[in-house]
Each structure stands twice: as structure tokens, then as C-alpha cells.
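Intended use. Records like the one below are meant for learning the mapping from a protein sequence to its folded structure. Do not use them to infer anything beyond what is encoded.
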Amino acid sequence: MSGKTVEIDISKNSHYNNVKVTPNPSPDFGDGKPLVGYKSFTHRPYGGYTIKNIICPNTYGFRFNGNTSATSTVEVFVWNDRSKESNPLLLRLNNGVSPAYYSTVTGSNWKGVESIDPSGLIKLLERTNCRINGIHLLDINQTTNSASDIYNCPSCYSGSSTITRYEKHMSQYEYVRYYYASSSGNFGNVRNSDQTIALPPGIVPHLYVYWSIGTNATPLILSYPVEGKYQWYIRSCGDTKWNIEGTLTGQNPGLYNNPGKIQDFIQKNVTPNIIINLQQERTNSYHPKDNTLEFNVEVTENPEHSGYYEYKHSMVGEGTFKVRSVEHGRKTLDGIKPEKIISSISGFYWGDNTKDDNRLLLVHIGARTEYYYKKNPYSSNWDIDSSIYQENLLVRLDQENCVRNKAHVADISKVSEYYRCYACSGQSINMVSSDEDTDKYKRVTHKVDNGGSIGRIFDNDISQSGIKIPDKIVSLIVFHYPKVDNKALLIHLSNSLFKRKHKDSDEWVSAEGDKLDGDDSSNILPLLKKINGDSEGLSGGDIAGYSTAGVMTPLATAEAVNYTLDTGWSIIRRAIAIFNAAI
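Structure written out for the chain above:
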């Protein structure tokens, strides 16, 4: 160490004696959430100097009770107002490991703060702001049913305010007005319960708030004086951000006598106006961007067994809302802006991955009259398509998937030459067919050329479920048995094998446990026979696993055991007994 030391003057907000001071207009307590209404100044020695002590010359009797030997920087938190920048409220000493916090009650005597989480630090900072600067919190959720009432600052519990209720227009215009006046200082942050909703540009002595009334009563309009002129702010239900209403600027709420105009603003904004992000995954509860209301996302495969998934956003409980904008991640989906009140909005995806923009194929608006949006292929816009409805939804999703992702529909009922994807009619799907194992089963390869891939599988127009198709798969191999029926029973897809759950099922399950070695294993024919329910060469247990219904009764299981144990039974008798027991 050089031995050169310097004293940190926490009343300074610019460079001084070998100390660089850096302002931060948006500090936080390590949780990434900016402190509304506060800023900080970080003091850092340079030129080989280390911190000897912390001082504040303009504070009488200042005393810092702490050790600075390992401290590299001192961060000073102050109220975000020029007239208050020289009044430190909280100190953060950084040593490269874990920060240490110091607070004060009087401004002169500073002591260390025991282990405390970010929310506790915020409360400590606000309480100190009340005591040092006389700037109190205003919680507009504190109301009264009386003509007038008193309540204390929710931060320091000593600064009192008067609440006056005006309900002259309540019965006719469905709103009530509250007037808040501080009797011991001024207001800084304005809150609605725990949510900071406004930060006046400077301190204010009083404030007016207009509430809607009814079951969903909520504050929607507020006004306060700024340099002698009243500013008005409006929000929609649940919004955390308030917007200036310029048509009312300068009007004194106490003298303003146009209740009809106030009512118009109330009615326009009492319905939530939400920013929906369709990338939100399945959840029972989330808060849309800049809003405190609770929404959920319900996920269903729609249509059933199609491989397409609907992510439906709606309010928790019952409720309707308007849509301010629709986003997908950080992108705004241009053109999607329903003009009317809706009950839900859904994104339809190819697969269950909501992160890929191109997998979002359609957007559904749930309202009294339902409708869909699809992406314009020639621009970034999304356009309403009134020709889409539930009955043709699968076809339209397939068509969009062809256009957006070049992902086509393979038909496993086809066995020779080539065919065209039914959804787009433009993409050829070529086939190579061969008879295997002395003409006992057929092996058919389906391949998509020209940069396309396979997006979905059906069997003669019937959707097949249970087959998860990886991205960019251009071919698949289908095994048909018996050859005379051309019944597809087994599919080899990339590195995966799938078999029908039973021969008449449209549900497929993994065949990875059937000890097959690739797609040309000598075990393929026995497996095909097993799926088909053939008795030749199969044990009673094999047959029991593939009955006509896919499930065996206890009696059928017993008969299957008799099949193997009683050699005196004829084969015909054994088969009839098992069949009758199964049904």
C-alpha cells in the first residue's frame, strides 16, 4: 500500500481531492429494481489513494461509526431533488465481497445496518427521507367513507395527512373524488398500496384523486400542483404508469365544474387496457407489462391430436379487457389491435415452443364475435381473416405452417410414387417403396425436397397423435403390415421409432424399448406382427398386450396362460378362448 489516504465527503456530488464522483439516476439494491424517487453518487478514490474516513462537514456533530479499511467505494443515496442532494439518507460501502449499509436517524450519527433484504432497505430509506427531508409517502389506497379523516404516513407513522371525500356527483356520474393534504411536510412518492404509481416532479403539498365506484372501484385520475399549475394524470385500470392528460392542464380540481367530462375519462379507462406478450408460457398467474392485474395462460392442444397448441391469455377469475398492443418477446405484432372489449386472446403455435416467432401461426380474439389474425406474407402486419373458424382451423394452421416454416403434412397412407402436401398443393413429397422380408411387409420412405421439412403426420386425413417431430426433419420411414392391407404400423423418424398403440389406434407410442437396431432390424417383422395382433410365434403375453381394444380382461389373461400351459388344446380352441375372453 502507498499510504496515501483521503477522506470521503458525502455532502459532495462532484469530483474533489483525488476522489471521482459518479451519479446514478436509477440505483437499486442489487435486485435490479430501480429505486423510484432516489438517486445515488458513488465516491471512488484514484491515483493510489485509499479511504481513511467518511465526513460530512455541513452536518453538526457528524459521526461515522464504521470501518473503511477495506472499502473501495462509498455510494450515497439521496432524494432525487436538487435542493435535497446534500442530505445523505443511506450509505453503501463496497469492499468487493458484500456491501455494508449505514443509516442515520438524525443525519449526524451513522451506524451499520444489520443483514436486511432489498424491501427492508427501501422501507429504511423512505423512513429516513421522512425524518431528514420531511418528504412523506402518499398512499391513495387509503380512503374514507366519512366526509373527512386523518391518516399517518405509512413510512414514518408520524407525518399526518387529511383525507376529504367529495361524493356530490357519485350517484349520477359514478365516481368519487378524494383530496389529500399533508399537515407535516410534503408528499414525494405517490403509491397505491405497495405500487409506486407517480413521482411528482418536485414535492407537492396536496393532491386530488378520482376513483371509479362499484365492484371494481379503482383510482383512475389524479392531479396536483407543479409550480403553481395543476397537472392531470390518467391511467387505465391496473396500470402502473400514468399519462399526462393535456386537455385538463391548469384546471384546479377544487374549482373544476365539468363532471360529465370527468365521467367520460372514468368510463373510458375503467376497463383494463393491456399489453399482451404471447411468448408468456403456461402459468396460473402473471402480471402483464406495466400492470398489476392477474392473468393466466391456459395451454391446450387445439385441434386435438394436431400438434398445434393454443396459449390462451385471460384475466384470473372473470373479467373483460381491451388490448393496447400485442407483443412477441421484444417485438410488437403490428396490426393486432382489437377495437372492442374482449375476454381472451390466444396464440396458436406449431408445437409447444413459444419462443420462435415463426411458430406463432394465428392469433385468436375471444369476444362476443370471435375472429383470427394471420401474418401478412408481404409485410410485417397481421391482418384479420374472417374465413377462419373452429371447423376449418386445422386446415388453416397447416396452410400457415407451410407458408411460414415450409413445414408440410406427410400422409402415411401413401405407398408409391409421390404426392403433394394437401395444405399448400405446391410441395411434392417423394416416396421410395420396397417390399421387405420376402414380400411380408412394405417399407416406404417419404422425403420432402427443396428446403422443406415435415411438420405434421396424418393417415388418410386423420391426425396421428403421440409423434413428436424434431425440427428440420426432411424424411421418415413407414413400415406397412400386412402388405395386402398397407396398414402403417411403425414409423422411423430421425433417431426415434414409434409404433401404433394398437393396430386400429391413431395414437402412437415410443418403440425404443422393443430392442430394434435401426430401421432394418430383423426384429421389425415380429414387432409388426405383434402390433397387428398376429398369433404366429407370439406368447400369450404378447397377444394380451395387443388385443383389439388394446386392453385385456383378467379372464383373457388367464386364457392366455392356459394357451401356453395346456398342450392338449388345439390351436383353434386356444385362439377362440382368448378372443371370447377379451371381448
